[in-house]
Design goal:
Length: 131
């Protein structure tokens, strides 16, 4: 359904460092980085899409998170959600909801929420039952 998601950032180097840690936990390899533009993109292990991109806004204006907007990253298991949340918080994210079940979505939805250093809201979630 999705081709890519792009989050605008104010400090590319800071954002690249932050998201590299998160994508490492989730096993999403870096597809490219163009520091001169600046932007970078990660992808799933087994496909070229969808891409998760971070970079300076194309129009040159300041990056600003949108109210009601959120990007959700899929984790392979609940342990990865826990680890990703811990890594994000240690790397400077603001907590928005600790890892846990959210049965209001569905019985196996396990997720965590945080805001990146630019204020973009991120969810990391797993939809699989506990092993």
């Amino acid at each position: 359904m999705l081709s890519h998601v792009h989050l605008g950032v104010s400090d590319f180097d800071r954002a690249f460092d932050f998201y590299s840690k998160i994508m490492g936990v989730l096993n999403f390899p870096l597809k490219f980085i163009e520091p001169e533009r600046p932007w970078a993109g990660w992808k799933p292990q087994s496909a070229d899409r969808p891409l998760f991109l971070v970079g300076k806004p194309y129009n040159g204006k300041p990056a600003a998170p949108g109210n009601g907007q959120m990007a959700a990253l899929l984790a392979a298991d609940r342990g990865s959600v826990d680890e990703c949340y811990a890594v994000a918080i240690a790397a400077g994210a603001r907590p928005e909801g600790p890892p846990g079940l959210r049965p209001e979505y569905h019985e196996n939805f396990y997720g965590a929420y945080f805001r990146d250093p630019d204020g973009n809201k991120i969810c990391v979630c797993c939809h699989a039952p506990e092993d």
